[in-house]
Amino acid sequence: MLLISCPHCGPRDEAEFSCGGEAHIARPLAENSITDAQFADYLFYRHNPKGVFLERWRHAAGCRRWFNMVRDTVSHEIIEIYAMGQMPKTKAGKEAYATNWRRSSEAEKAAVQTKKKGAK
Ligand SMILES: [Zn+2]
């Protein structure tokens, strides 16, 4: 059983939380065209490393808020907890983010706003 420190409520039992899977999955923008196979990468495929993983969690039986967690899937060590919309600050978290196959996927590239003429 994990002792998870909710950023809003403090340390609570794992039973109060639900895991929302992989964090930092960027949705491709409609203005950027990608193939169906590349869109399937975004929609269906998830990173499943043996080691450090970036996850979304929700304090379902508490404040019901979402947050991100850097966790080692082998030892279950919780390395870092950080707010939604933020990036990991620990070295292990930054490495896990950078080495995820998703960072080089076409779906993730299509999640970036393309520059248009006249746009600021
Ligand atoms: Zn909470």
Protein topology:
Elements: E1 3-6, E2 10-13, E3 18-22, H1 36-43, E4 52-58, E5 66-72, E6 78-83, H2 91-99, H3 106-109
Antiparallel strand pairs: 1-2, 3-4, 4-5, 5-6
The structure holds zinc ion.
Can you walk through the features of this model?
This protein is an alpha+beta fold. The protein has a single domain, classed as 2-Layer Sandwich (Folate-binding fold). The protein is built from three helices and six strands. A four-stranded antiparallel beta sheet has the order 3-4-5-6, with helices on one face. A hairpin with a 7-residue loop joins β4 and β5. The radius of gyration is 16 Å and the shape is elongated. The termini are far apart. The site of zinc ion has 7 residues, from loops.
Question: Which tags fit this structure?
Answer:
single chain; 120 residues; alpha+beta; Folate-binding fold; 4-stranded antiparallel sheet; two-stranded antiparallel sheet; 6 strands; elongated; binds zinc ion
Q: Give start-end ranges of low-pLDDT stretches.
A: none
* Cofactors and ligands: zinc ion
Average pLDDT rating: 93
CATH class: Alpha Beta
The major pleated sheet works out as:
4 strands, antiparallel
Number of helix segments? 3
Order of strands across the main sheet:
3-4-5-6
In CATH terms, what is the architecture? 2-Layer Sandwich
CATH homology-level superfamily:
Folate-binding superfamily
Order of helices and strands: EEEHEEEHH
Shape: elongated
Structural class: alpha+beta
The tally of domains stands at 1
Number of strands: 6
Helix residue percentage: 10-25%
CATH fold-level topology: Folate-binding fold
